[in-house]
């Protein structure tokens, strides 16, 4: 039987993340689990006993799970490594909202114990694949877990684009940009731009214009089988494509961005079967004072029993 292996990824710019990584490595090693760290993080972590690998998808290959210590940005960075080889990500939030994370800082020891005893589930999250074309030629390809956003590169002028759904033109927008998001990304950039919150199990793509000067500029929810295209008009300033706020491509006038369902999902390890509604309430601090749903249901059941 091959030895169990876990990759540890940390936001080494935060001292708390470094200390957490050291604790995780120590506990996993004591449990007889081999630990990997990436070469660009090893010096900061000071991880005696861990295997040091280059920061490529090979670091996550054949690993049981990737434990990510940081915020959503750190998890998105780890997703670059894990997605090609299908390794699940387990995020421990050391940042602010940490919507993609499964555990909080105070749960770190218990989280490691759950990994050691294999008490976690894995769910798949839809991604999008992105193709940039210029004069009919592919100029670049990339992908996103949260969103692909086409944004103006010059503040003083609006971006002029035409949106297309499934090969048919939809609308011309003068705008600051357009966000093409997954359900996972509905609580990220698309949320800030006024898009709807979509439950993760719903398979769909979101199209959200940013500050559009147009009569019809509502957020759209389209089929996961659709192909969304955004064309940068020839007489507009240059634009830029951002994917998950990490990967970027310049978009000269005339560029065309095509967004479709990703060929591979991102796999997330889950410790708790927490309803997404509860996650929204917790992460955004939503006011629910006065809710009596369960109490009312129990009262109605009791009343029904008495009537019988």
From TrEMBL:
GO terms for molecular function: ATP binding; metal ion binding; NAD binding; NAD+ kinase activity. GO terms for cellular component: cytoplasm. The keyword Manganese does not apply. Involved in the regulation of the intracellular balance of NAD and NADP, and is a key enzyme in the biosynthesis of NADP. Catalyzes specifically the phosphorylation on 2'-hydroxyl of the adenosine moiety of NAD to yield NADP. Signal peptide: none annotated. The lineage of its organism: Bacteria, Bacillati, Actinomycetota, Actinomycetes, Streptosporangiales. Keywords: ATP-binding, Cytoplasm, Kinase, NAD, NADP, Nucleotide-binding, Transferase. The keyword Ion transport does not apply. NAD(+) binds at residues 72-73, 77, 146-147, 157, 176, 187-192. One of its GO terms (biological process) is NAD+ metabolic process. The active site is at residue 72. Belongs to the NAD kinase family. Its EC number is 2.7.1.23. Its cofactor is a divalent metal cation. This is NAD kinase. It comes from Actinomadura namibiensis. It holds the Pfam family NAD_kinase_C. HAMAP family: NAD_kinase. It catalyses: NAD(+) + ATP = ADP + NADP(+) + H(+). InterPro entries: ATP-NAD_kinase_N, ATP-NAD_kinase_PpnK-typ_C, NAD/diacylglycerol_kinase_sf, NADK. It is found in: Cytoplasm.
């Amino acid at each position: 039987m091959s030895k169990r292996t876990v990759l540890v990824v940390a936001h080494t710019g935060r001292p708390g993340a470094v200390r957490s990584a050291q604790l995780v490595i120590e506990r996993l090693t004591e449990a007889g689990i081999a630990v990997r760290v990436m070469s660009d993080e090893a010096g900061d972590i000071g991880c005696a006993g861990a295997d040091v690998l280059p920061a490529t998808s090979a670091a996550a290959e054949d690993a049981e799970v990737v434990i990510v210590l940081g915020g959503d940005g750190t998890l998105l960075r780890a997703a670059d490594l894990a997605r090609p080889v299908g390794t699940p990500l387990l995020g421990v939030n050391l940042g602010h909202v940490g919507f993609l994370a499964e555990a909080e800082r105070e749960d770190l020891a218990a989280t490691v114990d759950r990994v050691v005893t294999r008490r976690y589930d894995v769910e798949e999250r839809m991604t999008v694949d992105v193709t940039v074309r210029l004069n009919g030629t592919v100029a670049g390809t990339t992908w996103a877990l949260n969103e692909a956003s086409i944004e103006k590169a010059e503040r003083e002028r609006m971006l002029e684009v035409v949106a297309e759904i499934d090969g048919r033109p939809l609308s011309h927008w003068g705008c600051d940009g357009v966000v093409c998001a997954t359900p996972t990304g509905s609580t990220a950039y698309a949320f800030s731009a006024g898009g709807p919150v979509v439950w993760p199990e719903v398979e769909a793509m979101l199209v959200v214009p940013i500050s559009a000067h147009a009569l019809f500029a509502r957020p759209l929810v389209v089929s996961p089988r659709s192909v969304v295209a955004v064309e940068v008009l020839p007489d507009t300033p240059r634009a830029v494509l951002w994917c998950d706020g990490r990967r970027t491509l310049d978009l000269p006038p005339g560029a065309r961005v095509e967004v479709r369902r990703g060929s591979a999902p991102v796999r997330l390890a889950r410790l708790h079967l927490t309803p997404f509604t509860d996650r929204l309430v917790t992460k955004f601090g939503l006011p629910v004072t006065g809710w009596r749903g369960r109490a009312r249901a129990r009262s109605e059941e009791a009343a029904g029993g008495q009537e019988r």
